[in-house]
Amino acid sequence: MKNGEKFKQTEPAAKSIMVALLFSLSILLLSACQAVPITGRQQVMLISDDQVSSLADRSYLDFVKSVDAQNRRLNEGESPQAAQTISGIRRVAYQIVDAAGLRGKYQWEVVVIKSDIPNAMVLPNGKIFVFTGLLPIAKNPAGLAAVLGHEVAHVIARHGAERMSQVLLVNVAGNTAAAALQSANNRNAQAISAAIGLGLQYGVLLPYQRAHESEADRIGLLLMAKAGYDPSEAIEFWQRMETAKTSGSRFEFLSTHPSEGTRRTQIARWLPDAKLYYADRSRPLPQNLIALEQARADFNTQAAASPIAQPLKLEKGSWYDFSRDRANPVRHELTEFVTCGTSECMSFAVSDGTKRILTRNFETYELRGRDGSWTRFSPALSGYRWPLRVGATWSDSVSVETSSGSKRQVQTKVDIVNYEEVEVRGRKFLAFKISRSINGSRASEVWYAPEVGYEVKLITYNSAGVPSNNEMVGFNLNKSLDLE
Ligand SMILES: [Zn+2]
User: Fold this and answer.
1) Alpha helices, H only, 342-458
2) How many angstroms does the Cα of residue 393 sit away from the middle of ligand 1?
3) Ligand 1 centroid – CA 87 distance (Å)
4) Which of 143, 146, 144, 140 is nearest to 112 (CA)?
5) Per-residue model confidence as pLDDT tens digits over 426-471
6) Rounded Cα–Cα distance for residues 206 and 219 (Å)
7) pTM above 0.85, yes or no
8) Helices (H) and strands (E) in the chain — how many of each?
9) Mean of the pLDDT values across residues 257-280?
């Protein structure tokens, strides 16, 4: 400790200045700690929301000015395609903002920038920027929700303000140490204070940056699920990012972010938490991670208590009535058994003149129109997998063929997300809630009640995400009930 000798020469005055500074710094720190919403992590906050907002407003104006100067803003009037792109992004963004409960708190705005860089960012004042280069990698609304969930999470967690506070602190701490060294008349003062600066930079700021990224991933995952998107799509998204990265695209967005591999591993670990929100979007966001863990434990206990459900063996003449958006009920009656591929299917005649052909396991094999036109699924659309069990999840690549000769491939994914009480026309059922998506977009949510042996409620979503409500109003499926 030869160097230590030199510190002994520190003048008493300098020493007491340093002590005073460190003391005031610690007081400042104690009074300036606050909890991050959702994770409950304590963060240093030396900057007020107003200060952050006015800084962000200025950045926003500067940035938009430079975007417009280069004619890079995508405008709705440009083409129908552009209008569709913007409204699609805006819809996902607002769903995320609503899930976060922040619609009224900021002046949200979505700006789409024409650029092949796959990037997105959000300013702390709620201004969202999406670069068109991100869209092919986001690929679908769920992929976009993964990115926007992450970005909005930075806003909720006030990462921008925390980082500014840290920079302030690091500067104060660095200057304090440097001042003490200077007055100690140390010949190496400059070198040492530079080293302190570097140490603070790499020891404090950079790890925080990584911690912020992880925290934004974690919060973002909950937000996308609460907004109605399958959170496991986030893993698919980061996989695509990695593939695109190795294929040599420009990646400014990623340079400050953790590797996609680390990211996917972490997200996979957090997925069960996010599934709580995919299962029940009305569930309030947690106060902290302990509350989240408790909620997950409660959910697992409840799920473990769900019954084993096997498909009903239906006989000819079985029927059920469904009402769509409160319109007159439509009857589905099992009129005959037909061959479908190598097995036997149930053919339901629907009172609107159409037909539904289902396998014995209630997978959709074919839909037939009034005029005899048909749409066929291969393999049959598997909306159920028996026995039903909460947490079960499966995906299929399904070929959809129509009588007009068209053929396309779709990716379907089904999750049994919950076993819960559902009310249909004033009557309560215990039901498995099943979420289904097609090509990453939510397609339907189904409540299957074992006591009925079929779905008692079904919400379908069109391509714009608009829901349609279908309710069972009566049935005779080995046992009967009239809910009218
Ligand atoms: Zn980030």
Assistant:
1) none
2) 29
3) 23
4) 144
5) 999 999 999 999 988 889 999 999 999 999 999 999 887 889 999 9
6) 20
7) no
8) 13, 18
9) 88
